[in-house]
Write a sequence for this structure.
């Protein structure tokens, strides 16, 4: 079975500081990893994905994520946080034997303060 | 707007009633997914279509739930004899192929009284 863990329910960071939202996964075979963001009363918006290739993946709105196979992690990062980045972030994984579905973590609420 | 659309956005119903939701995917996407999201949780997979064929169903999808995609375009999700535990946000997503990201609609929020 495939699973995702987001160990932090909430992350607080000051505007202008770097941010990291953590994600670890468990799958059979090579993972396909995704980050989505959810704003209040809106659907999930795709940020970035890792399928294969470079371990550092760049995505929308200045976000990036680093795939670490040995630590089975896919942490989301941004060098300089904005107040407008405040939202709920979900990590998701699809692996061999997981069919076509994405398995999501429970989400991490990011709060960026002035 | 060429994104995934869902209708209605909100539905309030009484326990025991039937409800039906509609999803219109991005037009060139042949893969369509339904998920359910409850408060404080990430989306949970319900079912998946490739064109008109329903290829995968979660154990979460009880006999009261049925989904169709009759012409390989829009899809409907019906819940019969709704229960209070069915209250959730129902999300639809579509993708162009297996390795592409899924694009999500705004969801239908169901409240069962």
């Amino acid at each position: 079975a495939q699973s995702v863990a987001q160990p932090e329910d909430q992350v607080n960071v000051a505007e202008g500081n770097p941010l990291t939202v953590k994600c670890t996964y468990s799958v059979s075979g090579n993972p396909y990893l995704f980050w989505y963001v959810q704003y209040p009363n809106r659907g999930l918006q795709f940020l970035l994905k890792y399928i294969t290739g470079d371990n550092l993946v760049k995505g929308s709105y200045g976000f990036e994520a680093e795939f670490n196979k040995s630590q089975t992690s896919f942490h989301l990062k941004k060098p300089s946080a904005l107040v407008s980045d405040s939202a709920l972030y979900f990590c998701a994984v699809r692996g061999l034997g997981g069919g076509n579905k994405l398995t999501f973590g429970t989400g991490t609420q990011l709060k960026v303060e002035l | 707007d060429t994104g995934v659309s869902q209708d209605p956005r909100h539905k309030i119903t009484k326990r025991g009633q039937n409800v039906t939701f509609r999803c219109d995917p991005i037009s060139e996407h042949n893969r369509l997914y339904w998920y359910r999201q409850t408060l404080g949780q990430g989306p949970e997979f319900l079912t998946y279509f490739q064109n008109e064929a329903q290829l995968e169903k979660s154990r979460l999808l009880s006999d009261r739930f049925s989904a169709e995609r009759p012409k390989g375009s829009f899809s409907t999700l019906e819940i019969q004899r709704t229960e209070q535990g069915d209250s959730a946000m129902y999300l639809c997503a579509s993708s162009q192929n297996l390795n592409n990201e899924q694009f999500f609609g705004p969801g239908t929020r169901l409240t069962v009284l």
